[in-house]
Amino acid sequence: MDDNLIVESSTxxxxxxxxxENLNLIxxxxxxxxxxxxxxxxxxxxxxxxxxxxxxxxxxxxxxILFLKIVEILLKCEVESLKKHATNLGITYTAKDLKKGKExxxxxxxxxxxxxxxxNYFSNCLVLSHAESIEVFKNxxxxxxxxxxxxxxxxxxxxxxxxxxxxxxxLYLLKESYPKDYAIYLWKCLMCYITMDFEIIMDxxxxxxxxxxxxQQENKKLHKNLKVAxxxxxxxxxxxxxxxxxxxxxxxxxxGLYNDxxxxxxxxxxxxxxxxxxxxxxxxxxxxxxEEERAYYQGTINALRLKSIDGDVIQEKTDLTGQxxxxxxxxxxxxxxxxxxxxxxxxxxxxxxxxxLVQGAVLKSNVVFxxxxxxxxxxxxxxxxxxxxxxxxxxxxxxxxxxTFEGLLLQYIKQSHETGYRIQLS
Length: 426
Prior knowledge:
The protein is mainly α.
């Protein structure tokens, strides 16, 4: 018998011998036989079902286990060994039997199985085959059970108990201690009993009629079913593997996106902090310039007040003679030049697209007019610092308009204290 448990064959064999519900339970048992979680009450129910099936059969489990073990011997034998067994038993096989090969001789031997001489002969073969296990069991029947279960099949141990000791109570111990293996043992006995027509072999051997190559065909069918099951398992394993790989790739992608998002967030935070820092610096500079401008104007007012009291006449300046004006930014160079020339001054003009010329122009001038629009507060800061170094007025013009520029230029000309740092916001 093949040890592989094939659900389809089992369903076909037990159909009509138990209820549909019990058939489903047997199938579930066979499908989950290798799973450790399938145990306990489910196994007890399966054993009960198998015991109920035995009640409707003519022969009991004792006869069935001996038949199972003898059939195993026959199926493992080569043709020459089978021929030797037949000769030893005085069983004649024909040329037709030999033509069928192994199955033909087995058919001939099983046709005589009902004879006591045949069963005794093969029983002796079993004893010789399992002599060592039998000796261990006989030396200590109760204490050797657990050790033997780990070394031989449970059905072999059941045969030893039933035929070498008459201690059927030990079968109950096997049933309680190893319920899953015990259920498999019952299943194998039933399968062999029914598929091999044991009752016909025992009672009506003359009616025994094997189909051609029946045993071989059954084996092939079982192997085919097993191959299909293995292929399905392989496909399932491959599907699970691909799913795991896809999940792993997705997790890697998600991790990468998360890291990118974190990095981008950190960059944005740094940019925001830099903007805040630059804004605060700009506000600080504006406040400083405002304070300096206010101090300058306050000093101018005080000086004018004193001169008014002293009766001095204030001479207004009306031109830029001897002075150079730095005009930073704007896009109307010709107009700025005309206005500065009109008041007899020189001009250092720095266009918006050449901010690198700012510092040089400021250092060569007597006053700075910084028009809005030049790129960035950095250049504004460069111009302001250069004005401080040169100690000249710094006037911020919040427009590019020519009229506003000329008005602020006239205001500068009319001031009595041209030198010293100050800022004018238009």
